[in-house]
User: Which sequence fits this backbone?
């Protein structure tokens, strides 16, 4: 069952609420013997951390990770190593600003999970959205850092490629730019335009959606288990599980609907020792199985639902009212979704790497 | 593990290849006491059946379903009823045209799973694509018919909404039109245009992609299990698992990226006994849980990879060659994906209905 | 979820009722490239087949297996091979003797699942016990034959070691005797005694319980996943799932309760290249993980519940009555449980072999 | 997958090592709205806590539980309530006595998981047995306390019924005695005898095995999912997963092997509104489904492997040596397994309660 767990052989379970004492993740099935450290995980968490620019929430959380189990070190292990047992990671919440929750306690914020949690469970931790808060994604990023250790040769990177109606220009795409601007954007010109655009959005007390592209390079051929453990299927599931995501596509994605079979064919040519594909409309996946080309996933994040402009809603007592959501919100949650997308990619690939190795006895590979 | 199974409490496992003796599905976890018949399942299968118009493959398969287990009838059960034990459904393959498979045996067809199956498994049933053939979707449709019995009040319908670059006009959207044309299209004008367009595509020996929209009405509030059993997550997984699907979106989907928080808010108003939403940008799902509004999913299908125009490829021996894929192929596989999308929607909702009932003791419902 | 499935990476799902048209199993996750044949599976089924001696049911079922999917053969595969896709096996029921079911339709047979199925599902296929019939074990045996292909070096054998109060003498234990008597008994003297004893039991119209011992030799070190995927845990689950089984033990089992720590210690000694154990109280499993010694499991089967001596029971209308269960029943179902126990051992080991390989990248091995 | 998780709808995952900073459990799928408190869980933990008599380890661990997530309280919830989200419980380790681990670092203790962990993972946290330590069972007991909230009407109790060769006299069985002696023994006379017996065992520096009986009363009819989610199967799995357990039986258990069908039949009689069983050889389970009678499980625990008498073993370098295991060990680990057995019973029943409710829409019940 998958309530709060994801993955099969490499499986993680997250827990925690926005304003509880802590949040965390238990990673189960990580191979033993991998060099690991809190610093290694922290580095990934720091990229997702709030309050790093004026374009993300001003909540001040150090998001300091602690490893509670699953690792061991003595003079013979050459540093801290995974042991094959569950790795428990915890992040304490420190900046749960004391405040009056009256408004969101009794009203349903449009676009939030308030109404559905209330209906499903009959009780709701309304403080900061409780379990439905995007703070849960810190646990994903921490888990993703561990997943990356399982597939060290796979290079996973992501870029914000659209903010509101403004898309990047792929001709300017440069991975080295991603950490040079507050948007994780591979196109520096677009990043500069977004800065101006988002200043306006913030002044209006509004927010805006975004699209993220995640690319995994050097993925071995053979990952994915047809028919209901397809690699693209699990990637779609992984990305759609991120807060506020409304759409996922692989390779050409929705554009594939407009193409003819002639245009969409990724033709092959004989290469040195192995064939290669002349194009990558498939996004690196054929029949649910990786083909050795870069795995390319894009997902759309809706605009932050918490805005300062009043919206119509109802109270728990089914009475009409308005609501504005004060607080420290991201004007574009898509920005901080970039490292989360990278983490989910790592988590899916690590799981399928182990599954493939289990079923076939091979570690996959490019070519034949 | 999910190799060839999907769902949790309502779980199905499919088996079979395109040119094997039969294909089938085992449905596990179906509640007992439901009235069932082969005719009921056959009706759904007949909608997906090949050879019903010149726009789909001319393969002649009656797709006759047999119930092999999980049902019982005596004078006290008032007809055939499910018993709560596994329901095994089988469909025999009858039109596996005898032919020379030499070309696809030794060459990888671009866009097909030939290369990846060969690489992953080291052996490949190349006859008609084997396990990667869309014939597997017959098993999904059969299972979907049973799933619908679990959630009889939920109305699930789908329409083709785009063929190549040609989209429907939503102002003309009329569900009653769907079964009046060979495209399962709710817009009769678009259907007529597509007929002409696809004639051209067929003459070119090419194919084209499509977009399908699936809508479920009267979905109870509360279905979905955050954080990794979200309803939208499982729908994304379900739709992405269908052959040739490259993209999935819920509600506003990718368009949500372009909206502001002001525009995207589904405002609420007090209603009779329960509040209602003024709009449905969310596609009926908030925080991964159904909110009582129609659940709206769209997915993109790439153009059929099997085309009559030669494409460059390589042989198993890594030598350059060309390939054309003769045979009886759908110029637009998106058409027959319409009933498959409906089936997957039913399968996901039935599973979440049982899961919700298990965890909460309630059957969900609109309002509070 | 596990309603009718077992295993994780090597997973099988059974379906079918005693008096339905057929029963079967879908095996999911079997590695590709393994040589397979219907004859190979049939050989195992023939050992379990009813009607082979006067000590088992006289129902005449050829139990002829058909492979419906998951295999492929051409001139390059050197015979039929698994392809990595689901293997569907079907066995048609042929000897569902037409008869009046009135008695068991309306009365609950003591010791049978009649009462609980009726209560749980509200409907019950009473013909021959329906799904609760031991005919389901034919599907296990067929699946077990495939599982054995995954771990060809592991030698799995079983013997009946107790019938009623009569135990074998382990000093006479000889595996070669197992197929020389109708009891799968490694002690020929005990087998002869049982023949006389069971003749008496049959004349009384009664039945008797039994104990089966299953031994797997050459099991690689390292199979098992602590803490909730322990090898002994999964073996206990596997054996307890067999019809009529009421107890399972590993190694010294219940006797371990009577031992001191001094007596129970399996001391170790340095061996050639690897250490060895001086004794095997552990039954080949330490901390849930195989240690390279033979894995030894024993399980107890209760006496056949269907007997010719009247027993008190009630009707569906909660009225007192008596019942005798006519029909063709095994006086000791434990006999035919022997090949079933072997099959379950193979299924558990094959699954853990793949899981271990997935998580560690190694295939296990004896020694270090 | 089940590495460190157990259960389906009510699922828990444990983590932590004997000498790490903490251990814990994440409970996923607990229904919302249940009154909960740390004190409630602590009460159960205190029963299992070490150092409560001279018959258990003298390690001093307060085993203080903290609830980190999944609960909420405000003025309307009437105390702390579960919210339906994951409940994370943590217990900090405080008495990891600083010491030289040299001996167990380099030698394999007979009967322990040292050898198999080393072989499987290539690395081993040898401090106190690491993950294989029975300290993990604290997490089970904490989880079991939460499970009991899901099935409040089911009464679960356990008694030690055998220590070494000394069994209780069932004629003296009195549940009220269980908490009146340091052995959780329902027979006060046996308890007194065991005290003397164990004093001798301790003086010898040895240890001894035990048998525990767990009884659940007022279990609703209908829990259990044939064929591979049988209630007895999951109980066998649950109990066998406890450290040092080597055998499990249900109802008559191994004794059933010696009975005839006449003796073993639990005859039924018409009762007020519902039938009843005249005996309970079945241990409350028929065909894998609860029948309304008490569910009775017994399991055998081997003697503590850590003893003060030298035993032969080998070093990691495959050299012969001896080992004695100093430390603070239980002379009979079976004693502290009693509350663990209760917890596992609660965990299995809670899970099956939710599964049954999901699949059938009913909560089960006695009678029809």
Assistant:
């Amino acid at each position: 069952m998958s309530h709060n767990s994801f993955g099969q052989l490499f499986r993680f379970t997250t827990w925690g609420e926005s304003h509880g004492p802590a949040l965390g993740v238990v990673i189960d099935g990580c191979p033993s013997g991998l060099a690991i450290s809190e610093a290694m995980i922290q580095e990934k968490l720091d990229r997702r951390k709030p309050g790093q620019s004026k374009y993300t929430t001003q909540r001040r959380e150090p998001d300091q990770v602690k490893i509670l189990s699953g690792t061991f070190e003595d003079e013979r292990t050459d540093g801290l190593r995974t042991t094959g047992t569950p790795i428990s990671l915890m992040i304490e919440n420190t900046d749960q600003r004391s405040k009056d929750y009256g408004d969101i306690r009794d009203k349903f914020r449009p676009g939030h999970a308030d109404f559905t949690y209330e209906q499903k469970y009959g009780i709701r931790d309304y403080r900061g959205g409780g379990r439905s808060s995007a703070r849960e994604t810190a646990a994903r990023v921490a888990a993703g850092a561990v997943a990356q250790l399982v597939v060290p040769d796979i290079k996973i990177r992501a870029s914000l490629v659209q903010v509101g109606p403004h898309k990047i220009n792929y001709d300017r795409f440069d991975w080295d730019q991603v950490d040079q601007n507050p948007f994780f954007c591979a196109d520096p010109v677009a990043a500069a335009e977004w800065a101006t655009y988002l200043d306006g959005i913030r002044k209006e007390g509004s927010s805006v959606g975004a699209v993220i592209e995640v690319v995994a390079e050097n993925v071995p051929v053979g990952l994915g288990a047809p028919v209901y453990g397809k690699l693209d299927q699990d990637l779609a599931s992984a990305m759609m599980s991120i807060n506020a995501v409304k759409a996922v596509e692989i390779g050409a994605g929705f554009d594939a609907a407009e193409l003819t079979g002639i245009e969409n064919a990724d033709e092959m040519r004989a290469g040195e020792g192995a064939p290669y594909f002349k194009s990558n409309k498939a996004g690196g996946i054929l029949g649910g199985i990786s083909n050795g080309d870069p795995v390319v996933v894009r997902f759309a994040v809706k605009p932050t639902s918490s805005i300062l402009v009043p919206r119509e809603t109802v109270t728990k007592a089914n009475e009409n009212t308005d609501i504005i959501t004060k607080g420290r919100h991201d004007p574009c949650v898509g920005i901080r979704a970039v490292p989360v997308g990278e983490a989910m990619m790592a988590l899916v690939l690590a799981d399928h790497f182990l599954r493939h190795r289990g079923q076939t006895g091979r570690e996959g590979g490019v070519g034949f």
User: Anything to note?
Assistant: The longest helix of chain B spans residues 337-360. The two ends of chain B are 36 Å apart (CA to CA). The helical segments of chain B are 38-48, 102-106, 114-121, 137-150, 188-203, 231-240, 261-264, 337-360. The mean pLDDT of chain B is 94.
